[in-house]
Amino acid sequence: MVVLAAEGFSDSSDSEVDSDDSYVLDEEMNALQGLLVLCCIFKSSRESVNSLFSTGITGRPIFRCILSEKRCHILLRAMRLDDHSTHLVRVEIDPTAPISDIYNSIMKNLMSN
Hints:
- The chain has helices spanning 26-41, 49-52, 61-66, 69-78, 87-93, 97-112; strands spanning 3-4, 79-80.
- It is mostly helical.
- Mean pLDDT is 76; it is low at 6-19.
């Protein structure tokens, strides 16, 4: 379960966030997931987003073709792997709560194939 946290958009310190930035399309989430897969393929897990989208030598043109750097920052900042309202209760029961649902879903899909 991927949840876009509404509080991620309400931070007044980020002057670049527009009022229409809280609307997310499924295509944008798919594009973001694709970018994360490309980060794994290019072995750039420790590289900054600015560097990935750079027009210089460190940047990769495919990242700029898929999603804008600003939108990528906004989506990454707002994305959560668990539900904020049940997080505290779930962490008391299971310390790996934020990722366990996703891991269990992946394992279930792998076992069924």
